[in-house]
Amino acid sequence: MYRIKWYTQEEQNMDWTTSILVRDNIKLRLLVPDDAGRIFEILEKDPAIREKFVTWTAGLTTEDAVRSAIEKFQQNSSLRFGIIDGDRLIGYVGTWSNTPDGKEYDAGYFIDRDKRGKGIVTSAMKALIEVASKNLPIELFAMYIWDENEPSKAVAQKLGFTRTDVIEPEPALGGVPERRWELSVKK
Ligand SMILES: CC(C)(COP(=O)(O)OP(=O)(O)OC[C@H]1O[C@@H](n2cnc3c(N)ncnc32)[C@H](O)[C@@H]1OP(=O)(O)O)[C@@H](O)C(=O)NCCC(=O)NCCS
Q1: Which of 123, 120, 152 is nearest to 48 (CA)?
Q2: Each residue's pLDDT tens digit, 33-58
Q3: Of ligand 1's atoms, which has the minimum distance to the CA of residue 111?
Q4: CATH top class, domain 18-184
Q5: Is 47 in the pocket of ligand 1 (CB under 6 A)?
Q6: Angle at Cα 127 formed by Cα 124 and Cα 128, nearest 5°?
Q7: Taking the domains of the chain in order of start, what are their residue ranges?
Q8: Is any ligand 1 atom within 6 A of the Cβ of residue 171?
Q9: CA angle 90, 93, 97 (to 5 degrees)
Q10: Cα–Cα distance measured from residue 167 to residue 144, given in angstroms and rounded to the nearest whole number
Q11: Structure pTM?
C-alpha cells in the first residue's frame, strides 16, 4: 500500500539544508562539530580571515574554540554551511537572521587559500541565496565588507549586491570599517 508521509514544518526546513548542490562536484551541508579540525586548518593558513575579515572566527585560535563556535550555531539555528568539494571541506558560507521577523539575513564566507579565484564562493553563495529565499520569508540579504577587501567586494558585486553608504567599525576585527551591502530578494 502507498502511504503519504506528512512532514512537520521543522522536518521540511531540515530537508533543504541537508545538501545544496552548487555545481559539478561541489555541495553545501551544515557544519558539524567534527568539521572543527579542517576549519581550523583553513584559518591557520590565512590568519587574516580571523583578524580582518570574518567576525565569527575572531579569536578562534584553537581547534576546540572552533568546535564550540560550531556547536553554538547548531543551538541558535543559524545556517552555517561547509563548502564540500567531493568529500573535502574547502570553505564556509553562512546566513543568519538579524531581525526578529526573519525578513533580513546577514551573510558571510571564506574559502581555503588554495581554492580561491575559481568562482567557488560566488557559486556557493548564489546557491545558498536561491534556496534560502525559497524556503524562508527573507526579503533582504546584507553583508558587511571592508572596502580594502577586493575579492569579497568582487563576490558581492557578482551576486548582485549593491553598496550602501553605511560604514561601521567592527570591534571584533580590530575596528575595521565595514561597509554594508544589500541584495533585495522580495517576492
Ligand atoms: C573573498 C573570498 C571568499 C572569495 O572567494 P573565491 O572563491 O576566490 O571567490 P570567487 O572566485 O567567486 O570570486 C573572487 C573574485 O575576486 C576577484 N579578485 C581577487 N583578487 C582581487 C583583487 N586584488 N582585486 C580585485 N579583484 C580581485 C577575482 O578576480 C574574482 O572575480 P572575477 O570572477 O570577476 O574575476 C576569498 O578570497 C576569501 O576567503 N577571503 C578571506 C575571507 C574573506 O575575506 N571573507 C569575506 C569577508 S567580508
Answers
A1: 152
A2: 999 999 999 999 999 999 999 999 99
A3: 39
A4: alpha beta
A5: no
A6: 85
A7: 18-184
A8: no
A9: 160
A10: 8
A11: 0.93
